[in-house]
Each structure stands twice: as C-alpha cells, then as structure tokens.
Amino acid sequence: MKKMKRVPGEIRAQIAAMPIRRLADGSTEILLVTSRTTKRWIVPKGWPIKGLTPPEAAAREAFEEAGVVGRILSEPAGRYTYWKRMSDHFILCEVTLYLLEVERQLATWAEQDQRRSQWFSLDDAADLVEEPELATAIRNLMPAFAL
Predict the structure, then answer these.
(1) Three-state SS at 73
(2) Fewer CB within 10 Å, N or C, the chain?
(3) Is 41 helix (H, G, I), strand (E, B) or coil?
(4) What is the mean predicted confidence (pLDDT) over 83-109?
(5) CA atoms of 54 and 76, how far apart (whole Å)
(6) If we measure between CA atoms, which residue out of 110, 95, 116, 97 comes closest to residue 33?
(7) What is the distance in angstroms between the CA of the first residue and the CA of the last residue of the chain?
(8) Under a CB-based contact definition with an 8 Å cutoff, are residues 134 and 43 in contact?
(9) pLDDT score recorded for residue 90
(10) Which CATH number among 3.30.450.40, 3.40.190.170, 3.90.79.10, 3.40.50.300 corresponds to the domain 12-145?
C-alpha cells in the first residue's frame, strides 16, 4: 500500500480529551496539562490512533499525558484549530474534543515527567489556555455543569 503524501497547507486532524470531575460542592473542574515544548496549558491531545475510535484515542491521550481514566463520551464536545509547531515549520490542526468523566487519576503515568498537570475551575481554565477556540469550548461547558 502506497503511503499518502501530505499536501502542504492541509489541515491535519487531532483528537483531544477534556478531562472533567465534579467536586463534592457540585462544581466542576477540568484537568489541563502543559505542552512539551512551549509549556502552555492545553488539554491532552494527539494524532488519531490506528485501531481506535476518535473518542478511544482521546481517552488514551488523557491516560498517557495526565494519568486519568474514566468514561469518554462518544459525541464531540467541540472543536478548535491551532498552529502546531514542528521542528522547521508550522501545521494547522483541527482538534475534535471529547468529554472524559474522570473516575480516577493514577499515582504514576507515562508522561508525568514531561508535563505538568493541574485541575482548574472551568472559568480559570478558559482564561489560561492560549487558543481562543479552546477557551470558547471550555466556556461552552459551563452551562451544562452550572450549580
């Protein structure tokens, strides 16, 4: 089978998890991680994984990047685009977001030494992420999780 050549300027698809948890007081938090290179706050994301559905791949990214496991919802919770920095150029990516209802966070996980991870209120998380469309997607969760 011939490998498809990438077209310069084409939009690349990525998947991401939006790991959330409900606190005892009824408020909702989202888990953000830092990107490996620029250290900005993002949600766990990556490329589609062969043999996994997009939601399953998003759950795998959350497991590897943040050590969280839970129930991934199959319907997308939103989308956003951003410019991904490669070694010698940038590529435009469209990220499909899936809500992950976190059941537990492991004590150790694959990328814990490469990234920081921290729980934030939805409002704070929306202020911290640099991608405007990701901030909007996080803010769009607020009505669904309002007290």
Answers:
(1) strand
(2) N
(3) strand
(4) 92
(5) 9
(6) 116
(7) 53
(8) yes
(9) 87
(10) 3.90.79.10
Contact at 8 Å (CB) between 122 and 29? yes
Task: Please give the structure tokens belonging to residue 97.
Answer: 């977001």
pLDDT value, residue 5: 58
Q: What is the pLDDT of residues 8-30, one digit of tens each?
A: 678 999 999 999 999 999 899 99
CA distances from 14 to 5, 28, 64, 80, 120 (A): 18, 25, 15, 10, 23
- In degrees and rounded to multiples of 5, residue 42 shows phi and psi of -145, 180
Our measurement of the distance from residue 56's CA atom to the centroid of its chain's CA atoms, rounded to an integer in Å, reads 13
Q: Residue type for 122, please?
A: L
The DSSP call for residue 107 is S
